[in-house]
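hey can u check if this looks right to u? its 455 residues, i copy pasted from the old doc so theres a chance i mangled smth
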Amino acid sequence: MARTAHADDFALSRVTPDARKPWFGIAVQRFGQVSALSQFLLGATLGYSMTFGQAALALLLGSIILEVIMCIVGIIGQKEGLNTALLARWTGFGEIGASLVGLAIGISLIGWFGIQSAISAQSLDALMPGVLPIWAWSVIFGLAVTAVVAYGFVGMQWLANITVPLFLILVGWSVITELSKHSLGDLLTSPAPGPTMTVWQGTGIVAGGLIVGAIITADMTRFNRSRADVVKQTVVGVSLGEFVIGLAGVLLAHAAATGDIVAIVTSSIGFVGLIIVITGTLKINDWNLYSSTLGLVNFISTAFSKNLHRVTTTIVLGVVGTILAAAGILGAFTSFLIVLGVAFPPIAGIMVAEYFFVRKWRGDLDATRSSGRLPEFAPRIVPATLVIWLVSSLVGYFVTWGIPAIWSLLLSIVLYTVAGKLGWVRGVGRATTKQADPADSEPAAPAGPEAVATN
């Protein structure tokens, strides 16, 4: 494989065996993704409305749901060595559907990248008022993350190796500082300080808080060496992230009788709280930008038959997200991004149903895996998939009982499997996939779609 494929982090090709990584390093990244500041806030939300025991049970149940999804989707990504948007071409979506998947990932995650940058900028301004305007903090933070992600998976691993241990140390310091003022026994047995919620509601918050990360888990696990590594990194990374950070948030919420963790850590330990905010946001925002880039590269590749260089695309998207954060207009996108988020669970459901149950295009992947190539053809469009995706997403949006994301996920699996058994899952047209040439200085662009017989 060409060096540019490595530099491009295999955005449009399979990850080669020599590029696979030890599971523990990737587990650190997974832990960093789960143990971000948002997880701290999630724990505080649970603690403010639940007893410690109830919150722990909600974290357990939510973690199990997430880990099952991550392991199943992650094993597909590991086995095929493909990122989510590229893998979708042969797991039920076809080229047009996969391009829509890539676009949805790109828009959603670059939006969240900007929002996280804006949140960090506001926190920095609150801790150091008047030093710089908020827009300047947004620019500094956004461009710093962009530089790391442009360097690729290796740069993100380097960032994780620094920020994850630092974040844990600082969170521990914050927890000890605040909890030393209270009786631990009282905190473990005290009632919820705020309006109560059920364990089921709490489970929904835990699972829903990381569901998009679970759906795009192939972006990470394609670098794993075995299925066992996927399971190990998921169980270790998610369990520790959910429980260590989540339960710390629960205790702090009980101690301070508030769900505003940022206010707690910044008021109790001052400048250290600033570093917690920065490190806690860095390790989620790099993955927001990374997966957004992969999604957009795949969309442009399919829709316009043109390859974008991953590094260049990362810089452009990072600058766009940074500018939007600095302009302060991302707040208007939040509702749209939440609506878009309900479209993600059915993506995983359809991919799982196709790969394990229907297997319409599984043979194409199996036949080319050992050679490290992509299948020669992909279905151009799969109408049944688009209908199932839409119906399942609408269920996720309108059904508010239980865990909507899980219902839409399960519904998409059932609908796709039934449609497959009835013979309704069929590709219309097919497109030729032009393989990357190791001798090329740039990865080769895929060929345009060829209007031929139904696949």
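Residues 179 and 255 are 7 Å apart (CA to CA).
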